[in-house]
Design brief:
9 helices, 184 residues, mainly alpha
Length: 184
Amino acid sequence: MNRFGSSEALATLLILGGALLLVAQFFGGAASVIWPFFIIVPGLVLAFIADRSDWNKSLLVIGAVIAGSGIILLVQSIYDYYQSWAYAWTLLPMFAGAALHYAGDRRGEADLKAQGKRLIEWSAGAFLAFGAVFELLIFHGANSWGRIVLPLALIGFGALILLRRNTQSHAPAPSSDKDASAQR
């Protein structure tokens, strides 16, 4: 098997980095959008090396998370919307889960594939929930109805927790059949 060695990886990174810098010179303002590729490319190279070598799934996950961080930063750079990092970090487990799912699929390990799927599902749910809270209530909604909805939601969740705790502590303990027969 032909291994992708570290010198080839370094050479590839240098060529890609030089090409990106050259493109930035021709397109002027594109440098503000190109810089995340200095994070994406090393992450992809690391994931590629992990995939082609002894299937070190830890390196594959690390490469996916690094590349995913770069993708998040690329989107934020394109839209100049860095405040979204307040909830975009919840996508990092999705990249890790995608790497685990891929590794499990390639290796034929159903447990690893299922673990990756659970991470993807958790991450997507967290991203939607945090994104909704930050975008609707804090970032854009704070000037209008968000100033009232967020405090009311916090009060409601706190009251719900206290109510559930009080109803569980006052519930009668379940009796067993031995206790009932001993009382007779």
